[in-house]
Amino acid sequence: MSCRCFDELRITGTDLRQRFELSKCSCNSRFDVSEMGKSFRLRSGTVENTEKIKVDGVLFQGTEVSRCDYLFVYKGCRYLFVELKGTEVGKAVQQLDSTIEKLYSAKILSDNDEVRCFVVSSCHPNNNGSYRTAETKLKKKWGSKFGRGIYLKLKSREIVYDALLDKVQN
After folding, report:
1. 54 found inside a domain
2. Fewer Cβ atoms within 10 A, N terminus or C terminus of the chain?
3. pTM of whole model > 0.85?
4. Domain for residue 137, yes or no?
């Protein structure tokens, strides 16, 4: 079953905290996201302890903010930022950074939270200079801000993340 919570959802208003609450998925299909052959799957989450937010097009609309595609919140304190990207993996990391910045500035994210970032690309990641530069900037900027630092994983086609073990499975 595919999530359809965001198909017709349009949230207006300027308060980011309020839009954040209204952008949450309310169905039982909140553990997988996919787009054009790329997918992210969350394992070991339950409906009671996992929230899914569509960031691009729902939480943030228009083009004024660079942002990632999805955000999962596990047990209210582990934030999993997901970008499903073609080949521009350096840009993907910048989108993750911009989303973290917005949520941190709005005090949705706090210093005690755990932050995990995932980029799922459409082809084999070539770990090029733009990706390495963006990764270094992201880790330098946010590495000391959060309880367990910041984690970034790049993989092609699919990432399966086990929330209970806090690690990528494949």
Report:
1. yes
2. N
3. yes
4. yes
